[in-house]
Fold:
Amino acid sequence: MADGDGAEEAADEAGGELAGFLPYQLSVASNAVSSLIAERYRKRFALKIAEWRIMAVLGDGPVRTGAGEGGMTQRALTAATVMDKVAVNRAVKVLEDRGLIARLPNPADGRSHLLALTGEGRAIHAEVMPLARATEGDLLAGLSPGEEALLRRLLADLRARAMRLASRTGQGPEQA
Structure:
């Protein structure tokens, strides 16, 4: 991302240690990648990053969520996206108002609901995923298969370590 990433260049110019701080580097890289993907479908589908993340997790269905065909609770969705509860709540409200997700009764707990993509939500998910995968391909094009595998393993390891550390302190990763 060193080729023109304004935030990283600004941190370098400030002369501070921020540019070399791993959490900052991960955040900037994540934001840059998310923004790139979002920009490629924002105009066509009018979805913000948080809304797309919700749809992507719900669209992965039972294999990803383990929630069965009925969807997943908002709490499980918050955990799966590792997003702030307020951001998830806002995105869910927007998607529900647009008719892209629906609340279903939760047979396991009558006090909560399950969230699931509607037919229209699944149709949009099916259109956006190829665009997201193509962008992923563009991003990874400069890496060898071994480098890509290493990157994926290192990111998974970092996330798992962060989750373990956060559980020890009683904080979620977004608060750590």
